[in-house]
What we know:
Elements: E1 5-10, H1 18-31, E2 36-41, H2 64-75, E3 78-84, H3 92-101, E4 108-109, E5 118-119, E6 125-131, H4 136-141, H5 146-159, E7 164-169, H6 177-194
Parallel strand pairs: 1-2, 1-3, 3-6, 6-7
Antiparallel strand pairs: 4-5
Amino acid sequence: MTGKRVFAFIGHPGWESLCASLVSAYLDGVKGGGHEVRSLNLAAMNFDPNLEGGRYRTAAPLEVDLQTFLDNLQWCEHFVLGHPLWWGGFPARLKGVFDRALLPGAVYDSSGKRLLPRPLLKGRSTRVLITADTPGFFLRLAYGNAILKQTDRQVFRICGMKPNRFSVFSPVKTSTDEKRKSWLNTARELGCKDV
């Protein structure tokens, strides 16, 4: 059995986070299956998160770290992303990675007269590990799982990535050490099963 190519991205802008621990535990599960793994940490990246002028055609060339992110995304067969839920969405720097690196011609083709762009990253599955203070039931009932829908429909599926699986670990603020250990075990088990 040949292993898969797995790219793990820690999408928390801080160096130490529960997100980083969850991704690390997930990779512990993945590595047991003989897969090839690459990883990148948002906190270590040096780039301008702003899309200059708000237009892809006039955007600055990708900095080395953004090009590395894009290269790894194009290389992988399975993508795992860990990020916190801040103000109902992605942290600004993580959104900046998507704005700058997920470019037409690299992850989707918007040329021609198509109504929707043609995805260029087909054949890739994903797992998203989200930390939040918002309880899961409230995220579903009050907000309709908006962050899950945005990530699935407006980011991954536009690029062609599916199936997309999500795990929300919450509420973090009131979690105990025992609960966090349980979450890490869950992430490890997901790494074993997903790939």
